[in-house]
Write a structure and sequence with these properties.
globular; mainly alpha; 57% helix; 4 helices; 84 residues
Length: 84
């Protein structure tokens, strides 16, 4: 999530929790949940997200989905280079 917030700040990952300030919104919206699912898929299955998990939930913009999938793949590759 930090990577997305720093490198793609236009992607909103948080649901409006109706808190007093936007910084207090802590629950994921649909795009944030999709990011988590893509990272889980890439980590647990090991396949590129777009190869095996081509499902995009209704309400997620295709362009945003492409960005999220790329991030999940890059972060997994980055983790592999550090751990192994």
């Amino acid at each position: 999530w930090d990577y997305v917030r720093e490198n793609n700040p236009e992607l909103n990952l948080y649901a409006e929790d109706y808190s007093d300030t936007p910084e207090n919104n802590i629950h994921p919206n649909l795009l944030g949940t999709y990011l988590a699912a893509c990272v889980f898929y890439r980590t647990l299955i090991g396949d590129l997200v777009e190869t095996g998990a081509n499902y995009i939930p209704d309400g997620v913009d295709i362009g945003d989905a492409v960005i999220i999938r790329g991030i999940a793949n890059r972060l997994f590759d980055y983790k592999e280079n550090i751990l192994f």
